[in-house]
Amino acid sequence: MTVIAIDGPAASGKGTLARKLAAHFDYAHLDTGALYRAVGLSVLRAGGRTDNEADAVAAAGKVAEVDLTDPELRTESTGAAASKVAAIPAVRQILLDYQRDFAAHPPGGKAGAVLDGRDIGTVICPEADHKIFITADVETRAKRRFLEIFGEDGAPDEYEIILAELRERDERDMNRSAAPLKPAEDAHLLDTTNSDIEAVFQKALSLING
Ligand code: CDP
Ligand code: CDP
User: Fold this and answer.
1) Residue range 17-67, pLDDT digits in tens
2) How many independent structural domains does the chain possess?
3) pLDDT reported for residue 210
């Protein structure tokens, strides 16, 4: 079983790289951020509070019921809700087994798994065969998210809002005590500020293939 761990801050390109690597090696892919987003969205929809442990734990217990293709999961307000529930250790604990089980027994009988998130290389799969921590300047990441949502026609103030939201989320994700965002000691660091998707993919392949 081969496990590839991709971690990094919001909109650094984790999901894009993880999907490309999974397709290339024919491995299963798990977007672990979607699990936290599902918990955050469920709390909001139930009228609960995302910083309330009981509300968040109740939602985490029912994460399997959430449709992971719901477009509402991808919004920045769901991202903020995800980052709040993700700071609660009991929520992380509930999602841990599912993620480890995915890595140990990838669905579809695949020979490997690619997981992307914040703590895959540090907490979920510390024994992963390959660990990549991808970063990019926050302005570049905000620009990418902005283009993803609004295309070329977005208003400048929309960009500023996204930039502020990403900064706030980075801050919360890096400074929480439960599984903070940080590179594993044995992770390869990949700065993608000036690299397009294909260049990042080729660089990752060369790191993995040694
Ligand atoms: O796609 P983006 O990078 O914006 O975010 P995401 O990967 O969907 O994650 C949403 C939020 O979930 C993050 O801001 C983290 O707070 C949390 N998360 C986490 O704590 N641990 C993970 N393994 C994945 C996500
Ligand atoms: O999963 P994460 O939030 O880290 O990022 P993503 O969803 O993979 O990428 C965020 C956006 O940046 C997407 O629209 C990607 O197409 C784009 N992107 C890019 O323009 N250049 C890169 N090197 C990586 C991603």
Assistant:
1) 999 999 999 999 999 999 999 999 999 999 999 999 999 999 999 998 999
2) 1
3) 86
Measured from the CA of 197, which atom of ligand 2 is nearest? 23
Q: What DSSP designation does 159 have?
A: H
Q: Which of 105, 99, 107 is nearest to 124 (CA)?
A: 99
The answer to whether the annotation marks 177 as part of a ligand binding site is no
Give the strand order in the sheet containing 112-117.
Answer: 28-31, 112-117, 2-7, 130-135, 188-191
Predicted complex: ipTM over 0.95: yes
Q: Is 11 annotated as a binding residue?
A: yes
- Locate all alpha helices (DSSP H) within 26-155, ordered by sequence: 32-45, 53-61, 76-85, 89-104, 138-150
Distance separating alpha carbons of residues 171 and 6, to the nearest angstrom: 19
Nearest protein CA to atom 14 of ligand 2, as residue: 148
Q: Read off the pTM.
A: 0.97
Question: How many angstroms separate the CA atoms of 157 and 202, rounded?
Answer: 34
In a mutational test of the pocket of ligand 1, which residue from 7, 83, 119, 182 has the highest number of ligand atoms less than 8 Å from its CB? 83
CATH number of the CATH domain containing 6: 3.40.50.300
Dist. CA 50–CA 166, nearest whole Å: 18
Domain around 54: 2-209
Q: Summarize pLDDT for 114-128 with one digit per residue, the tens.
A: 999 999 999 999 999
Residue 133, H or E segment: strand 130-135
